[in-house]
Amino acid sequence: MASEFWNDYRKWNELISDRYLKPESAHRPVYLDVDDTDLADTLMEQGWGNDDDQADFIGVVRKTLLMSLELYDDPLEIHMLRAKPWLESQNDEPPPFLALLAFFSYAAYKMTTTEDAAAHNYYAPLTELIFGEGWIEEERDAVQAGYVKSAATLWRGYAHWLEYTMHGFYGNPTTESLDRRVNIKYPLSQAILRTHDREILQDCFAYNLLRPGERLSGPDMEKVLSQWLPGSPLSSITKSIWKKGTQHRSAIAQIAIEELIAWDGMLADPTSDGSRTGNLILLVNTSPQPFPRFNCSVGIRGSGWAQTEIFDVIEGSSKPYLASSGATIEGLTLKRSESSLWEVMEDLSLPDLFGSLIRMENKDTGDSVRWVPREILVLEEDDELRKWVDTRSTTIDKAMKILAHHSVEDKLCNFLAPYLGRSLIRWDSNNMRGIPEGWTLFEDVWIKSAIQTEDKEFITLNSKTMSSRVDFIGGLKIPSERIWLKSKLPTISLAAHHGFGDTPDDREKAGIFKLKLEEVSYLPDPTSLTLEPEEGSQTVQFNLTGIDLPSGQYRMTIEHQPNGGSSKPLAVANCGV
Predict the structure, then answer these.
(1) pTM of the model
(2) Using one digit for the tens of pLDDT, what is the confidence trace for 437-476?
(3) Residue 67 is assigned to a structural domain of this protein
(4) Euclidean distance between CA atoms 489 and 577, whole angstroms
């Protein structure tokens, strides 16, 4: 009898894997967001009737938990024993406890549909799924004790498998928070937003001029959502959940953070059936040796396209020009250069491009892209693309570049003067090869205080209101993944923070900064160490060169202890080695 329901459990484990782990989700956030509709669809696909024992997903998983409770006085122990060989081998087979995690996610889904959806009540619906409506406190205590003891190991093992064994082939994990969270946040992160609402978050990103791939902190994303969410097209259920308390807002913000990291910058076109629209972006690299050189291209973030795509110039726009001949061109060829980036192959005349409004359409997909003329372009380093990319806002206390037309150069310098923390470094076509004629590149632009202006000429310089965050500078990483090679680790920098200041007295007053590296692992004795910041830098930076870190996933926490105060975390981020 026991073997029969374990066969049923293995069948459901396979069905959950097939439904939620798909190659088309590669490098996108993936969720085990199980609800009644998904379960009903699965039953229909399998041709099961309601009277079929194996059709009862809840009943099948419940039997395994009750058996474990009877044998080991712990509802999860039997799953932990079954999981141990898989956790130690980390092969490419989906985890044998995937159906169990889906069960936990379903309990969170049931919790969010009730009036009393406070996070601390998670164990009530979970206990009811196991023992039925007539459960008693003793049973609830047993469920909570078993979950707290073991569930985090399973959630983290699943996340580790997605990211480090499968390298994002089935998607990126969404179960590991960037901050320290209680155990229930794992299933809550899977169930709190449905697919449609997650897609609508892209409207929020575009409205707030957030850069695709940008990494906001939890508090920053909560601020963004707080202003946008009340009048947004999100479902009434999500808006109700948002109002229920800090933990729910934090969980929704965390999902939005992951969606922004994976967002390709394209938006659904409301006037069409399934097509999307986006903006061309400028992509820049500069090199000092053997002579100063400015290299740039134009591209677009996207997904689901072929290796090479053709976009035709359509009415209502200027035609771009070839730099070599000055001839106008009717369309552009975009070729995939990164997992989510397509770059223009034509040798465009950049001065003409910068001043033109260009609209293009892909006849095969219906997707459209455009370039909007600007006289000021703000560039921010994108560690995923390893390039400086065109963005539409500034960030305080972070190195940026600004490309400006000569006609606004003096006005720009006068406008920026009160906000600058350092002197500007200027380049033009006379001293840096590759810079377009008539344009100036400003490097090492450090904004020391937030810019907020209504002047349309400089509105692209407005600063995002952000709290301190961790930035990764340099090193050698796996493309499209947040994983660095052990031999080429990045420098860790504290962005959107005033750092040490200009003088030794400022440095003394700034207090003590430390970087804590903690390996996120289900194995005993994980690696943990603390680093001091580099000397002689105004900003807070930690050099990882020469540190022998074992391969794994790490949580990096920058802590600050002001003079006369206690130490507290300023910013947290995860990365892999």
Answers:
(1) 0.72
(2) 999 999 989 888 888 888 888 988 988 766 677 888 888 8
(3) yes
(4) 8
